[in-house]
Amino acid sequence: MTDINTRCLEIFPHWLAGLAEDVQTISTALAGELSREVKSTLTGGINYLFKSLDLVPDGIDDIGYLDDAFVLRMASRRACNQGIDALSDDIRTKLGRMSLDVDVIRELLCDELFARFEKYTDALANGSARGRTVEEILDDPAVASEFAAEVSDFVKTYEDPGFTPDEKNIIKLKAFMEARLPR
Q1: Contact at 8 Å (CB) between 26 and 42?
Q2: Residue 83: which residues within 8 A CB-CB, separation 6 or more?
Q3: What letters, b where the CB count within 10 A reaches 16 and e where it falls short, cover 118-137?
Q4: In whole angstroms, what is the distance from residue 36 CA to residue 173 CA?
Q5: Measured between alpha carbons, how far apart are the two ends of the chain, in Å?
């Protein structure tokens, strides 16, 4: 087993256990004073949770929500790079922590697959889920309210699916990413 696989088998259970908290952190950040660009990035990251055809179907044991955790970390990294200085120290620290986790994702996926994933996640700021675009969430109060309610429901009802520290889960995760990420 490679060093990165061993690290991921230790880290991924924590990412899954904290997914609702990560969503809440980003949702709280969105209520702060942020540029339109940062709000689009973070909204796109959360909106990904509601995509019916995401990279790894949520129902897949052990790995179904890992792509969601990955996307939130990528959105956090991009937002941190775009500028989040106006946010509270607590929220900046939490987003910064998620941002640093991108290095693990980069090492796991390696260059070509990570580049595809990065391009995919960058495009989420212009994407849609459940018939609503990021732009509509940001501009239409009714759509924003519906989105906020869904985010709140996710945070309240999310249950950690658990993660079995088996290298086969890493292989399955990478296979889904390889197959579903656009070239």
Answers
A1: yes
A2: 34, 35, 38
A3: bebbeebbebbbeebbbbbb
A4: 32
A5: 28
Both tokens assigned to 85: 């200085």
Phi, psi for residue 129 in degrees, rounded to 5: -155, 145
CB 55 within 8 A of CB 67: yes
Name the residue among 107, 152, 87, 133 with its Cα closest to residue 6: 107
Letter for the amino acid at 48?
Answer: Y
Angle at 76 between CA 183 and CA 53, to 5 degrees: 45
Tens digit of each residue's pLDDT (9 = 90 or more) over 43-72:
999 999 999 889 999 999 999 999 999 999
**63 CB burial (10 A radius; 0-12, 13-18, 19+):** buried
